C-alpha cells in the first residue's frame, strides 16, 4: 500500500507550495471573514492547515456555480456561436479533505459516461487533488459510514497525512509524477509508515458508525410511499443550502442572459429543493410539496445514484448537518429511515 | 469530445397554425449545415431541444418522420417563455437545435405486430411521426394492422388535419377520432379517449399499444388496456417532465432512478411499474 509513499518535512512544505504557484493555479484553505474557505492563493503564507473543513465544498473548481457554455450573436436569419476556451494552467486543490476528494469521484461519474460533459472534463483533466487527511474529525463528520474514511486516499492524486513534524504522502494516481520530482519529497521510512497506519486506525476508531440498513437502496425503495416522510420533512424550509454546500450535488439550470441580439447561454447550480425545479410550463408539478422534494434529495443520494453510478451520493462531510437552519440532520434521517418498518 | 450543449442552426421554412385557438403551431425547419443534417439520424419518439437565442431552450418531440429527410417538424403549444417566443417567429428566422435525444419508440420490437396508437391533444405529435413512418411505402409491409385512436377536446383542436384526411382515405389504417364535445358537422366519436378505446376494443393478440397524451388520459387508458388483455410489457408510454440538459446530467426529469430525457422518454408499462418515483398519471 505504501510502496510509493513519500514524506515531506513540515519546514519544506512552504517551498513546495511556492514552486507549485510558479506555473499553476493553487487553491488552498484560507481564513476569510471569519470563515475557512478554499481560495485561489497568491501567497503561501495565507494557507492554513489547522482547520476542520472549508465552508464550501471544492466542487466549484470543476463545476462552477455560474459558467458560460457559449456566447451568441443573433440577427435576423442567422446566428454565430462562440464557445469559450478552456483553462490554460493546471489547477491544484491543496488541502481539501478526503470526503471532498471522494465527492469529485461521484461528479466524475455523473459528468462522464456515454455522453460526457466537455466543460467538466476539460477542467477535471487539468486538476490535481492534493488532499489532507483528518486527524480530528468534526462531531458532524460521518465519512466512515459512507464508504470513505478520515484518512482515506481515495480520489486524491496525492494524499497528505500529518505526522507531527512531517507529512506522510501517498501517491494515488500517476498525474503527479512531475510534482514528485520536487526536492521536498523524500522516501518514506518504516517509522513514518508505522506511525501513519497507527493514526489512520485511531482516527477511524474515534468515529461512531451510523446504524444504517445493510440493503439501504432496496429498503428505501420499499419506503417510498411511507408516511414517515411527512414527519421527516416537516421542519424543512426548502431553502436548498444543503444542496449548494454538498460536494456531490450537481443539479443545474441552463438559461440565457441576453441584451438585444448578443448574449450567453449559462449554466448555474440549481436545487431539487426548489418548487420551480420540476414545475412544468402548464403549472403541473410532479413534486408539489416539500415532502416530495425532500424525499427526492434522500432517494437520489441513497437509492438512485447507487443504482445508476454504483456510488452513494453522500460522502459524509457533514456540511448540511452544520448549516441547516432548522437542524435537520441527514444522519438522523437515514438512521430513522433505516429503522423504518416496511408497510404491509 | 463532442459538445452536447451547443446547438446547431435550423431555418424556419414554414409555420402551420394547427388549432382554431392558434395556440399550437407546427414549425417546419430545414438544416442550415449539411453536416448537421447528416448527423441528425432519428427515430419516431425521439426529441430535440430548440433554442430561441435570448430566451432559452425547450424540448419537443419530432412530429416529422425520418422518411422525409432534410426537414424536421415540431409542434409547439404556446404556454411558456420559449414557446411564446417561438410563436412570435417567422419564416426565415433561425432557431438552435440540439438532438436527437432520448430512446424513441422500439421499432424493432413492433415489427410484424399489430399496433394500437392512443393519443390525446398536443401529445399526439410523436404518434403522428410514428404513424407516418409506418405508413411509408418502405416500412408498411414490416408492420401488421395499424389502429390510431386520437382525441381532442373539440374538433378545432385536432392537429395535423391534412394528415388525418389522408389517413382516412387509406385502407391500411383504422383511424378513430374523438372529441370530448361534438359540434355541428362532426362525424367522429364523441367521448373520452379511454372510453373510445374500450368500444373500439383492439385485440391484444400479437399487438402492442402505444399511449401518449395528457396525464389524465394515460391514467384512465391504462386500466382499459389491461381490461382488454394487454400485458404491461405490451404497453409503451411516452412521458414528459421538465427538462433542461436532455442528456441525463441536470438532474430534474427523473422518475425514480431513470431520467426521462436519456433513459426515455419511451418506457414500457412493465418498466415503469418497477420504478419507485412520483406517479405522473
CATH class of the largest domain in chain B reads: Alpha Beta
Question: How would you spell out the order of helices and strands of chain A?
Answer: EHEEEEEHHEEEHEHHHHEEHHH
Q: Order of strands across the biggest sheet of chain A?
A: 3-2-6-7-8-9-1-10
- Quick one: overall form of chain B? globular
With helices defined by DSSP (H or I, 4 residues minimum), what is the helix count of chain A?
Answer: 11
- The tally of structural domains of chain B comes to 2
For the CA atoms, what is the radius of gyration of chain A? 22 Å
How far is the first residue's CA from the last residue's CA of chain A? 48 Å
Cα-atom radius of gyration of chain B: 18 Å
Class from helix and strand fractions of chain A: alpha+beta
When the domains of chain A are counted, the total is 2
Instruction: Quote the average pLDDT of chain A.
Output: 93
Helix content of chain B: 10-25%
**Which strand-content bin applies to the residues of chain A?**
15-25%
Helix fraction of chain A?
25-40%
Largest sheet of chain B: 7 strands, mixed
How is the CATH topology of the largest domain in chain B named? Rossmann fold
Name the average pLDDT of chain B: 94
Give unreliable regions of chain A as ranges.
Answer: none
What would you call the shape of chain A? Answer: globular
Q: Can you list the strand order of the major beta sheet of chain B?
A: 10-9-8-7-11-12-15
